[in-house]
Write a structure and sequence with these properties.
It is built from 16 helices and ten strands. With about 425 residues, the chain is of the alpha+beta class. A hairpin with a 2-residue loop joins strand 6 and strand 7.
């Protein structure tokens, strides 16, 4: 929208407070602040929600794969053949055999529920979710027959154990006697303490070599699960369909959507609901822009009439008031983006500060799943938020602008 020199001058004067127009300027300032807060709130909330989904997806899928083949009865005796068939299937990039079994762990009289995860040593060392996450010790020390295991940081805190401590794992798969089955109790040395970043995993996971897990659970050469990674997690159903048809008689094939459907569907519903609710803030700010422009038109009625008598066109007046209102919305939008990104950059510091001031634990990992407040801004969503603020601000200028353009100078100046 190109403005002439006099139109730019008038628009600039209308943006700044004139004599006796402090209230109009106050309303316009409130409108700008409301747009800023609305845009900032949307950017912050949507980025945090995206961060939640991305972090949970990376951690959950990183440990559990895009899909799994679960053996009937918890056993896959022919897992090598299944792994070979998976690697021959187009789109499947990796097949990882493992054992996953809930057990109990004891140390110095403390007892905790755990989830034993037996993996081949190369898979332990190459797993992206585990790699570099050791707080103490090293996962490289986990070798077959070494008697060393890795445990999550929250589990270590709960047991009061550290690297070098010996903990006992209790397995119900024991020897059968005339008095019933005697549980097996096997001691292991903690070789590494890791922190994945998901509370439930850090509270329960015990990592050990596959052979040691098979011995502990008396599984022989069988495994319980084969994890599958694909080239595209969003297309996993289509990719694994031919493979599922081949191995369906030997195990149940399920992808990450089926295994975690409730969690990710809940996040998506909450994300849409938050976007809708917070958009109302911008809508309210737009009504403030509308009211401030209406008051400005009423206050400037005489000036507008004089401009019309001096040759100002209706189109010129429309452009002036459109520019004034859109400028308020644009400044609020830019300020909101800046405020939102600053908050996201210091988000964890803000959480710690509020916790310190209030004395409340605002971020309990046992409730929030993750140990820190995540963030992942989506450029497309940010552009949509900015465009929505600008479009609504522009629409709010239409009525005041046409109202000003339709001012009849004869009626206004009749008694001057």
């Amino acid at each position: 929208m190109l403005l002439s020199r006099y139109e730019r001058m008038i628009a600039r004067r209308y943006l700044l407070p004139g004599k006796g127009e402090g209230f109009i300027f106050l309303v316009a300032g409130i409108s700008l602040a409301a747009v800023m807060l609305g845009v900032a709130a949307l950017v912050i909330v949507m980025s945090v929600m995206n961060g939640f989904r991305a972090e949970l997806f990376d951690k959950i899928v990183g440990l559990n794969g895009h899909a799994v083949v679960q053996g009937y009865g918890g056993r896959l005796p022919d897992w090598r053949e299944i792994v070979a068939q998976a690697r021959e299937t187009p789109g499947i990039t990796q097949a990882t055999p493992l054992i996953e079994q809930p057990l109990m762990a004891t140390y110095n009289g403390r007892v905790e529920a755990i989830l034993v995860r037996g993996m081949r040593v190369p898979d332990i060392r190459s797993n992206a979710t585990l790699k570099g996450k050791e707080l103490s010790g090293s996962l490289a020390s986990l070798t077959p027959g070494s008697g060393r295991i890795g445990i999550g940081s929250r589990l270590a805190e709960a047991l009061g154990a550290q690297v070098g401590s010996q903990i006992s794992l209790l397995s119900p798969q024991g020897q059968t006697t005339p008095f019933g089955t005697v549980p097996r109790i096997v001691s292991y040395t903690i070789g590494a303490i890791f922190e994945i970043g998901v509370y439930d995993y850090d509270k329960a996971y015990v990592i050990m070599p596959l052979g040691d897990a098979q011995s502990l659970l008396l599984m022989g050469d069988a495994v319980g699960v084969v994890e599958l990674d694909t080239v595209n997690a969003d297309q996993v159903g289509t990719i694994i369909a031919p493979f599922a048809a081949r191995v369906g008689s030997r195990g149940l094939v399920a992808d990450w959507r089926q295994l975690n459907a409730q969690l990710f569907e809940a996040l998506e519903v909450e994300r849409i609901a938050m976007f809708t609710v917070l958009s109302i803030i911008i809508l309210v700010a737009v009504f403030n822009i509308l009211s401030s422009l209406i008051m400005l038109v009423r206050a400037k009625t005489r000036d507008i009439a004089i401009l019309r008598t001096m040759g100002a066109t209706r189109g010129g007046l429309i452009k002036i008031f459109m520019v004034v209102g859109t400028t308020i919305g644009a400044l609020g939008m830019v300020a909101g983006l800046v405020l939102g990104f600053v908050f996201l950059f210091f988000r964890q510091d803000v959480v710690w500060f509020i916790q310190k001031v209030t004395g409340q634990n605002l971020w309990d990992p046992s409730i929030r799943f993750l140990t820190e407040l995540p963030s992942k801004p989506n450029p497309v969503e940010i552009v949509v938020i900015a465009a929505m603020a600008l479009v609504l601000s522009f629409l709010a200028t239409l009525y005041p602008a046409f109202k000003a353009a339709n001012t009849d100078p004869v009626q206004v100046l009749r008694y001057e």
